[in-house]
Amino acid sequence: MSGHxxxxxxxxTKNANDAKKGKIFSKMGRVITIAVKDKGPxxxxxxxxxxxxxxxxxFNMPKENIERAIKKGTGELVGETLEEVSxxxxxxxxxxxxxxxxxxxxxxxxxxxxxxxxxxxGKMAGEGAVKWMFERKGLLIVNGKDKSKEExxxxxxxAGAQDIKWQAxxxxxxxxxxxxxxxxxxxxxxxxxxxxxxxxxxxKEDMNLEEKNQEKAHKLFEALDENDAVQxxxxxxxxxx
Length: 241
What we know:
8 helices, alpha+beta
């Protein structure tokens, strides 16, 4: 698929060590807290919260961690003052990057992101300098190993998907944002397991890099994923995988 999504990194860490899992749980907890602050703790009316809790459960995040994150969102427990942040930049070879996160200190996180980009021949960009190259879409990820590619693609199209892109045996299903939940429900009714579901930034045009810069770009993505505040990283890079 065009670009890099945090799903790929998270999927690779399902069997990670305790320290790595702790970092993932911390990031997921922040998403839950922000979702509760935005639209309340009722999952029947808060789609963002429902999706965040479902993802947390997929990774066996302890129930008490989830409950603690919800209570931080309602104010029952004292927590950090969190805010959502979005940064735009350029990476190795001039690829375009969008970095989204949740932080308790925007200035500190900005400095950290600048530093990481600088280590890998990247740089920050002004607001709007990159986002015009992307579109906001719904994104579902499905493992294609249990069905033939043709059969799975037919079922995905029937479910109302807009586009399908393949990466390392995984179908990345693109929808209109408003259709994300309906397409997800339709696929689940067909007994198709969803590996990940979110709104994402999808590049309008893909960009290829020579091998040297491809490698440097993936190291950049890994370094960004390691940052405590970073939740998602998107780019217009065509993956070599």
